[in-house]
Amino acid sequence: MRPLWKGAMTFGLVYIPVKLYTATERQDIRFNMLHVRCHTPIQYRKYCPHCEEEVQLDDIVRGYEYEKGRYVILSDEELAGSPAEGARNIALLDFVHLGEIDPVYFDKSYYLAPSEGGQKVYELLRQAMEQSGKVGIARVTIRSKETLACVRVSNRTLVMNTMLYPDEVRRPELLPELDYQVKIHDNERKMALSLVENLAAPFEPGKYTDERREALGEIIRAKVAGDVAVRPPEAQPAKVVDLMEALKTSIEQAKKERTPDKPQRKTAKKKEAGAG
Q1: Lowest mean pLDDT among 28-37, 62-71, 82-91, 247-256
Q2: Are the beta carbons of 248 and 242 closer than 8 angstroms?
Q3: What residues contact 87, with CB distance under 8 A and at least 6 apart?
């Protein structure tokens, strides 16, 4: 892997040279937009409707729309003078318990590796965080954007998750559908809890696959091979069933799936000798 950038991580007066690596890689199947008649990839051009002409990159500036149709222009020099521009520093501000952070704040994941000469301080911070059971809250700049981040230990590695600011997270109180009043009976609650407990299992990410991507891959491979691609049948709408009956059936099904089949005992019948 190639590092996204090389910089430093600081806490107090401690300075750790680090490299930042992207921790995830999307495996989506990407499609190109083609002209239906000739299958040529479509080109997207920058066009000015006012001047009725195609615009080159050198003739494009950045503008912030402060009123409808009115913009303030920011030059590259002004953007370069902002504190975030060009900064490659992860500043650890506080150390907190991971459980205090709602996962809704997490955005992207990165690996932090020590640069030359930073191995000892990197390992010192890793061990201190591991023993304290806490994670670091940091301020970092990635691609000219300043963001919050959570630095934590995972598999003997410092992992950084970028975070959203509070004003970037929508409050669930804004959802009108959550303003409801329903009555849950004790037996319904117990049945639901029983279903959850029967479906409980250790988290094994390898057992979850992208079924849609796999199905698309099969269709694409069949088309490349010249075979006729078959459209999967459309899913039928689920029938409305009784809640308690659905819970009971789900629990029984979960028990069958979690309980391994017991091998049947083979019983040999003794033949009677000297009959008749």
Answers
A1: 82-91
A2: no
A3: 141, 146
Does domain 5-27+88-168 match CATH 2.40.290.10? yes
User: Is the pLDDT confidence value at 84 over 80?
Assistant: no
Which residue in the block uniquely carries the two structure tokens 């950038």? 5
Query: Tokens in use for 253?
Result: 């099904």
- Indicate the pairing of strand 5-11 with strand 14-22: antiparallel
Q: What is the DSSP string of 74-114?
A: E-HHHHHTSTTTT--EEEEEEEEEGGGS-GGGEEEEEEEEE
Domain definitions of the chain by residue range: 5-27+88-168, 47-80, 183-197+244-257
Measure CA 53 to chain center.
40
pLDDT in tens, 146-194: 899 999 999 999 999 999 999 999 999 999 999 999 999 999 999 999 9
**Euclidean distance between CA atoms 165 and 270, whole angstroms:** 78
pTM of the model: 0.72
C-alpha 62/C-alpha 64 separation (Å) is 7
Residues 200-214: pLDDT tens digits?
999 898 888 888 888
